[in-house]
Amino acid sequence: MSATPSVLPVAAGVAENIGWVDIVRASLRKDLRLEWRSKDALNAMGFFALLVVVIFAMSFDPSAEESRRIAGGIFWVAFLFAAVVALNQTWAREMRNQVLDAYRVSPAPASALFFSKVLGNFLFVGLIETLVSPLFIIFYNLRTVGPAWQLAVVFLLGTWALVANGTFFAALSLRTRNREVMLPLLLFPISIPALLAMVQATTAILSGENSPEMWIKILAGYDVVFTVAGLLLFETVLHAE
Protein backbone atom coordinates (compact mmCIF):
# COMPACT_ATOMS: atom_id res chain seq x y z
CA MET A 1 0.00 0.00 0.00
CA SER A 2 3.02 2.30 0.12
CA ALA A 3 2.96 3.04 -3.61
CA THR A 4 -0.45 4.73 -3.69
CA PRO A 5 0.31 7.56 -1.25
CA SER A 6 3.50 8.28 -3.18
CA VAL A 7 1.40 9.53 -6.10
CA LEU A 8 -0.44 12.04 -3.93
CA PRO A 9 2.41 14.59 -3.78
CA VAL A 10 2.45 14.67 -7.57
CA ALA A 11 -1.25 15.31 -7.95
CA ALA A 12 -1.32 17.72 -5.03
CA GLY A 13 1.66 19.59 -6.39
CA VAL A 14 -0.04 20.08 -9.74
CA ALA A 15 -3.10 21.44 -7.97
CA GLU A 16 -0.84 24.07 -6.45
CA ASN A 17 0.52 24.94 -9.91
CA ILE A 18 4.02 23.64 -9.33
CA GLY A 19 6.23 23.32 -12.37
CA TRP A 20 6.84 20.47 -14.80
CA VAL A 21 10.32 19.92 -13.35
CA ASP A 22 8.89 19.58 -9.84
CA ILE A 23 6.53 16.86 -11.05
CA VAL A 24 9.43 15.03 -12.67
CA ARG A 25 11.43 15.32 -9.47
CA ALA A 26 8.59 14.01 -7.28
CA SER A 27 7.92 11.01 -9.52
CA LEU A 28 11.63 10.23 -9.88
CA ARG A 29 12.13 10.40 -6.12
CA LYS A 30 9.30 7.93 -5.64
CA ASP A 31 10.75 5.48 -8.18
CA LEU A 32 14.23 5.67 -6.66
CA ARG A 33 12.84 5.07 -3.18
CA LEU A 34 10.82 2.03 -4.27
CA GLU A 35 13.74 0.51 -6.17
CA TRP A 36 16.09 1.13 -3.24
CA ARG A 37 13.73 -0.80 -0.99
CA SER A 38 13.12 -3.76 -3.30
CA LYS A 39 16.18 -3.76 -5.63
CA ASP A 40 14.25 -6.13 -7.90
CA ALA A 41 15.29 -4.54 -11.20
CA LEU A 42 18.88 -3.85 -10.14
CA ASN A 43 19.54 -7.39 -8.89
CA ALA A 44 17.99 -9.08 -11.92
CA MET A 45 19.67 -6.76 -14.40
CA GLY A 46 23.07 -7.01 -12.75
CA PHE A 47 22.93 -10.80 -12.59
CA PHE A 48 21.90 -11.08 -16.24
CA ALA A 49 24.60 -8.69 -17.51
CA LEU A 50 27.29 -10.36 -15.42
CA LEU A 51 26.20 -13.80 -16.60
CA VAL A 52 26.48 -12.80 -20.27
CA VAL A 53 29.91 -11.24 -19.77
CA VAL A 54 31.27 -14.27 -17.91
CA ILE A 55 29.86 -16.80 -20.39
CA PHE A 56 31.39 -15.02 -23.38
CA ALA A 57 34.70 -14.59 -21.56
CA MET A 58 34.86 -18.31 -20.77
CA SER A 59 33.71 -19.38 -24.24
CA PHE A 60 36.29 -17.41 -26.20
CA ASP A 61 39.97 -16.73 -25.75
CA PRO A 62 40.59 -13.88 -28.19
CA SER A 63 43.80 -11.96 -28.57
CA ALA A 64 44.00 -8.34 -27.42
CA GLU A 65 43.31 -7.07 -30.94
CA GLU A 66 40.34 -9.39 -31.42
CA SER A 67 38.94 -8.42 -28.03
CA ARG A 68 38.85 -4.76 -29.01
CA ARG A 69 36.93 -5.65 -32.16
CA ILE A 70 34.25 -7.81 -30.54
CA ALA A 71 33.94 -6.18 -27.11
CA GLY A 72 31.56 -3.45 -28.27
CA GLY A 73 29.07 -5.91 -29.69
CA ILE A 74 29.13 -8.19 -26.65
CA PHE A 75 28.84 -5.31 -24.20
CA TRP A 76 25.89 -3.57 -25.79
CA VAL A 77 23.97 -6.74 -26.63
CA ALA A 78 24.38 -7.85 -23.02
CA PHE A 79 23.00 -4.59 -21.69
CA LEU A 80 20.22 -4.42 -24.26
CA PHE A 81 18.87 -7.72 -22.95
CA ALA A 82 19.58 -6.79 -19.33
CA ALA A 83 17.79 -3.45 -19.69
CA VAL A 84 14.60 -5.23 -20.73
CA VAL A 85 14.41 -6.64 -17.19
CA ALA A 86 14.36 -3.16 -15.67
CA LEU A 87 12.04 -1.80 -18.34
CA ASN A 88 9.45 -4.50 -17.69
CA GLN A 89 9.43 -3.46 -14.02
CA THR A 90 8.97 0.23 -14.84
CA TRP A 91 5.24 0.16 -15.37
CA ALA A 92 4.41 -3.16 -13.72
CA ARG A 93 4.81 -1.66 -10.26
CA GLU A 94 2.53 1.23 -11.28
CA MET A 95 -0.28 -1.23 -12.02
CA ARG A 96 -0.35 -2.31 -8.39
CA ASN A 97 -2.99 -0.60 -6.28
CA GLN A 98 -4.21 1.32 -9.37
CA VAL A 99 -1.33 3.81 -9.17
CA LEU A 100 -1.29 4.23 -12.95
CA ASP A 101 -5.01 4.95 -12.93
CA ALA A 102 -4.37 7.69 -10.38
CA TYR A 103 -1.88 9.25 -12.77
CA ARG A 104 -4.38 9.08 -15.59
CA VAL A 105 -7.06 11.03 -13.73
CA SER A 106 -4.63 13.53 -12.21
CA PRO A 107 -3.91 16.88 -13.92
CA ALA A 108 -0.18 16.07 -14.04
CA PRO A 109 1.17 16.22 -17.63
CA ALA A 110 1.90 12.81 -19.09
CA SER A 111 5.23 14.02 -20.50
CA ALA A 112 6.51 14.68 -16.96
CA LEU A 113 5.67 11.13 -15.91
CA PHE A 114 7.36 9.71 -19.01
CA PHE A 115 10.50 11.79 -18.53
CA SER A 116 10.81 10.81 -14.87
CA LYS A 117 10.56 7.14 -15.82
CA VAL A 118 13.24 7.56 -18.48
CA LEU A 119 15.53 9.28 -15.98
CA GLY A 120 14.96 6.54 -13.41
CA ASN A 121 15.71 3.77 -15.89
CA PHE A 122 18.75 5.69 -17.11
CA LEU A 123 20.12 5.79 -13.57
CA PHE A 124 19.40 2.10 -12.95
CA VAL A 125 20.96 0.87 -16.20
CA GLY A 126 23.87 3.30 -15.87
CA LEU A 127 24.61 2.06 -12.36
CA ILE A 128 24.78 -1.56 -13.52
CA GLU A 129 26.97 -0.58 -16.47
CA THR A 130 29.33 1.23 -14.12
CA LEU A 131 29.59 -1.80 -11.84
CA VAL A 132 29.97 -4.42 -14.56
CA SER A 133 32.29 -2.49 -16.91
CA PRO A 134 35.46 -2.98 -14.77
CA LEU A 135 34.86 -6.74 -14.79
CA PHE A 136 34.29 -6.61 -18.52
CA ILE A 137 37.60 -4.77 -18.99
CA ILE A 138 39.44 -7.32 -16.82
CA PHE A 139 37.94 -10.39 -18.50
CA TYR A 140 38.70 -9.12 -22.01
CA ASN A 141 41.96 -7.35 -21.16
CA LEU A 142 40.78 -4.18 -22.85
CA ARG A 143 42.47 -0.85 -23.32
CA THR A 144 41.51 2.00 -25.61
CA VAL A 145 43.59 3.00 -28.60
CA GLY A 146 41.37 5.97 -29.42
CA PRO A 147 40.37 8.83 -27.04
CA ALA A 148 39.05 7.20 -23.87
CA TRP A 149 36.77 10.13 -22.99
CA GLN A 150 34.67 9.39 -26.06
CA LEU A 151 33.64 6.10 -24.47
CA ALA A 152 31.84 8.04 -21.75
CA VAL A 153 29.92 9.96 -24.42
CA VAL A 154 28.95 6.75 -26.20
CA PHE A 155 27.87 5.15 -22.91
CA LEU A 156 25.66 8.11 -21.99
CA LEU A 157 24.06 8.43 -25.42
CA GLY A 158 23.71 4.67 -25.88
CA THR A 159 22.14 4.09 -22.48
CA TRP A 160 19.70 6.95 -23.07
CA ALA A 161 18.73 5.46 -26.44
CA LEU A 162 17.92 2.12 -24.81
CA VAL A 163 15.88 3.49 -21.93
CA ALA A 164 14.01 6.22 -23.85
CA ASN A 165 12.66 3.76 -26.40
CA GLY A 166 12.31 1.00 -23.83
CA THR A 167 10.28 3.11 -21.42
CA PHE A 168 7.88 4.16 -24.18
CA PHE A 169 7.36 0.68 -25.60
CA ALA A 170 7.07 -0.84 -22.13
CA ALA A 171 4.10 1.47 -21.54
CA LEU A 172 2.70 0.65 -24.98
CA SER A 173 2.79 -3.09 -24.27
CA LEU A 174 1.63 -2.80 -20.66
CA ARG A 175 -1.98 -3.82 -21.21
CA THR A 176 -1.23 -6.56 -23.72
CA ARG A 177 -1.04 -10.24 -22.96
CA ASN A 178 2.48 -11.53 -22.32
CA ARG A 179 3.93 -8.04 -22.05
CA GLU A 180 7.31 -9.55 -21.13
CA VAL A 181 7.44 -11.06 -24.64
CA MET A 182 5.84 -8.10 -26.41
CA LEU A 183 8.38 -5.55 -25.17
CA PRO A 184 11.43 -7.20 -26.83
CA LEU A 185 9.44 -7.70 -30.04
CA LEU A 186 8.72 -3.96 -30.18
CA LEU A 187 11.99 -2.67 -28.77
CA PHE A 188 14.66 -4.71 -30.52
CA PRO A 189 13.80 -3.83 -34.16
CA ILE A 190 13.47 -0.10 -33.46
CA SER A 191 16.75 -0.14 -31.52
CA ILE A 192 18.81 -1.62 -34.35
CA PRO A 193 20.07 1.77 -35.67
CA ALA A 194 21.07 2.88 -32.18
CA LEU A 195 22.65 -0.49 -31.37
CA LEU A 196 24.64 -0.39 -34.60
CA ALA A 197 25.89 3.11 -33.78
CA MET A 198 26.82 2.08 -30.22
CA VAL A 199 28.76 -0.98 -31.36
CA GLN A 200 30.55 0.80 -34.20
CA ALA A 201 31.47 3.80 -32.05
CA THR A 202 32.72 1.62 -29.19
CA THR A 203 34.75 -0.57 -31.55
CA ALA A 204 36.25 2.48 -33.26
CA ILE A 205 37.37 3.94 -29.92
CA LEU A 206 38.80 0.68 -28.61
CA SER A 207 40.64 -0.23 -31.81
CA GLY A 208 41.56 3.26 -33.01
CA GLU A 209 41.06 2.14 -36.61
CA ASN A 210 38.27 4.60 -37.46
CA SER A 211 36.82 7.84 -36.16
CA PRO A 212 33.69 7.37 -34.00
CA GLU A 213 32.42 10.90 -34.62
CA MET A 214 29.89 9.97 -37.30
CA TRP A 215 28.41 7.20 -35.16
CA ILE A 216 28.24 9.47 -32.12
CA LYS A 217 26.35 12.08 -34.16
CA ILE A 218 23.94 9.42 -35.40
CA LEU A 219 23.40 8.23 -31.84
CA ALA A 220 22.80 11.80 -30.60
CA GLY A 221 20.28 12.43 -33.39
CA TYR A 222 18.54 9.16 -32.59
CA ASP A 223 18.24 10.17 -28.93
CA VAL A 224 16.76 13.56 -29.76
CA VAL A 225 14.21 12.20 -32.24
CA PHE A 226 12.90 9.38 -30.08
CA THR A 227 12.94 11.37 -26.84
CA VAL A 228 10.85 14.12 -28.41
CA ALA A 229 8.54 11.55 -30.00
CA GLY A 230 8.07 9.83 -26.64
CA LEU A 231 7.27 13.10 -24.87
CA LEU A 232 4.71 14.06 -27.52
CA LEU A 233 3.04 10.65 -27.89
CA PHE A 234 3.07 9.38 -24.33
CA GLU A 235 -0.18 11.09 -23.36
CA THR A 236 -1.99 9.06 -26.03
CA VAL A 237 -0.37 5.87 -24.75
CA LEU A 238 -1.17 6.68 -21.11
CA HIS A 239 -4.87 7.25 -21.76
CA ALA A 240 -5.30 4.35 -24.18
CA GLU A 241 -7.68 1.64 -23.08
Low-confidence stretches: 1-16
Order of helices and strands: HHHHHHHHHH
Count structural domains. Answer: 1
Structural class: mainly alpha
Major β-sheet profile: none
Q: Average pLDDT, to the nearest integer?
A: 81
Distance between the ends? 24 Å
Percent in helix: over 70%
What best-fitting shape do the alpha-carbon axes yield?
Answer: globular
Beta content comes to under 5%
Task: State Rg.
Answer: 19 Å
Number of strands: 0
Helix count equals: 10
Quick structural summary:
The protein is mainly α.
Structure notes:
Helix content is 83%, strand content 0%. The protein is an all-alpha fold and 241 residues long. Helix 4 crosses helix 8 (179-190) and helix 7 (149-172) crosses helix 8 (179-190). It is built from ten helices and no strands. The protein starts with a helix and ends with a helix.
